[in-house]
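2024-03-11 09:14:02 INFO receiving multi-entity request
2024-03-11 09:14:02 INFO entity count = two
2024-03-11 09:14:03 INFO echoing inputs for audit
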Amino acid sequence: MSDATAIPDLTARAEALDAADELAKLKDRFTLPEGVVYLDGNSLGALPAGVAETTADVVSRQWGELLIRSWDESDWWTAPERIGDKLAPLIGAAPGQVVVGDSTSVNLFKALVGAARLASPGRTQLLVDAATFPTDGYIAASAARMTGLEVVPVDPSGAAQAIGGDTAVVLLNHVDYKSGRLHDLPALTAAARAAGAVTVWDLCHSAGALPVGLDAHGVDLAVGCTYKYLNGGPGAPAYLYIADRHQAAFDSPLPGWNGHADPFAMTPEFAPADGARRGRVGTPDILSMLALEAALEVWEGVGIEAVRAKSLALTDFFLACVAQYVPRGRVESVTPAEHAHRGSQVSLRTENAREVMRELIARGVIGDFRAPDVLRFGFTPLYVGFADAERAARTLGHIFG
Amino acid sequence: MSDATAIPDLTARAEALDAADELAKLKDRFTLPEGVVYLDGNSLGALPAGVAETTADVVSRQWGELLIRSWDESDWWTAPERIGDKLAPLIGAAPGQVVVGDSTSVNLFKALVGAARLASPGRTQLLVDAATFPTDGYIAASAARMTGLEVVPVDPSGAAQAIGGDTAVVLLNHVDYKSGRLHDLPALTAAARAAGAVTVWDLCHSAGALPVGLDAHGVDLAVGCTYKYLNGGPGAPAYLYIADRHQAAFDSPLPGWNGHADPFAMTPEFAPADGARRGRVGTPDILSMLALEAALEVWEGVGIEAVRAKSLALTDFFLACVAQYVPRGRVESVTPAEHAHRGSQVSLRTENAREVMRELIARGVIGDFRAPDVLRFGFTPLYVGFADAERAARTLGHIFG
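2024-03-11 09:21:47 INFO inference complete, emitting structure
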């Protein structure tokens, strides 16, 4: 394939798949630049159409005109738990268990220290996904240091065997940020439960792309960001899930006044709030939080099962197009071929990956690069179509042509 | 004073003071609702005029059009330290020592644990302002629990005597949130230094209202919010100051990937960044952060000494008006009369304070209430004038009339 000539069979298939796609119309709920194929929603989701208007109202009317009164009159104060309840269905959580605020790293610290304090006394190990997104490992090391645990890195595929009577806490990523591998949350959670360990799942790369089922699978604690498949905006507030059965005993290392049972009593002693609200810390970041709330409106009437089905169809089709457009041997997929092990991204290993991605972006196909040699392509079913996948593979082939 | 009749002497003085006020024109840099006297800038600062335009650009162009590219092209990535440097002069810090992000509570946890790790081995006490804003006490208790220290509550006026050879860390508020009392940062810092203790100052109620002089007075660590006198917006990101001399040894309990020397290397081991940047944790909250950056533009050409002079003149004048408008015995100021001990708010104790504040707000004078019996009136010299102070006192008098 020495030029960018389209393969008629692939363009025809893309057209047919797009025509049959019941989610295709959801693209209208986003504002995307003309002429761009955006395959980096696994890093920063696109802009939902309603966010600009909401943000303008929050700034000019709620803040500018109502001022301090908006804490009550614009319902700012309850935003963390209200928005938590809005995203809860996307991760399979019943109401009252999710609170939004802080970054993923900060929530992970709360979750891991909280988990260590929930764990049975005498257990010494904090098992951590060895291929984890780095911040998870760094925060786990800090949480372990401050709670007297020992960090034990594990390959998630063998984690079930590694969990035992010494395991206090297990921290795993649902989808690996680099390879796009989906880990078996139901089985790994069951193994941890059987061994009496407390589970903490990082959902950054799965929430909004596939069913998670936190309640159904008995997960104890979970965290995730909202700026990838949830499209909350750059650095949007993250969330913390505390299963109902653990809420009364959850003992946060960050007991800020917002997590107090009666914050405005301003008592010298901390008395934790009931429910997920005790996961709150300081004053919530209202601009970003209400932008996220507006962003979640794109999910109206959308089922996560349908999103998952389209995600797999998109990544299947992209891999098929890559196989035909890119000369043999130039790229190697590090994302599992089996659906059961694939998230919503395709990671291709190649030489000069940094330069290849720069070329792709110059040609209007936006993915990203992870050192040393990985091209990442994220497929957000709400706004990516099959013609986009074909064009991305064709452009990649052209660069190698 | 049985009705709302103005006292001509006071209205004339207000007029003269406003006419002579060189900062009066700064009010044009804010968007304030018509007919309102806003005396709650010590809780939520007013909206700076440039914020709405910046926020619209951040959402629609930087996020919506440039998407992931904005991390570089819109300089999102460096925002925490860049904005830290922009607010540094307001707290007397040379560049490179302030980083913006997270809430005050989270920054306080970093600072207190970091301080405990900087402290000389064998010291056992964490001294905390007994009248502190509650979150400081709650977070101090958690930091102490996790570092093996013991919390010792102290009255800041006697703190210099309480600091001794067992003192590891001293946490004090520069201005008390409830009484408006200004504590003697230079003397208390000097006492702590002389005793070999590490100082952490909470600047929430002083930054932007009066000179702080962190570098000049040898403060070790400090935190503060940006949504009061710095007008950053509801829940805007807070900041952490790490004095140059401590940066190499500062050991954060929240070592997120943004605080890594080379975040995108994604190495399994944490290697802290140089400088204040090691105080970063997770992905910065860009919408709120860039709103804050725009908000800080109101300080262009404004000296904090002039702000302090006007602040004292405003609170003096307000107290004089209250003395004349409010029937004797109905309110009692809990804010010190001496300038050296007064921040930029006036707190009045009264019966039925909650109802009185509700009445004031209904009449267009916005302050706030702190349980059980305190009316708080914050004076932000950038947008509050002397006629506002007169009207507020007159309205208060009318309610008691």
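2024-03-11 09:21:48 INFO post-check: The mean pLDDT of chain B is 96.
2024-03-11 09:21:48 INFO post-check: Chain B has two domains: 8-31+303-399, 53-299.
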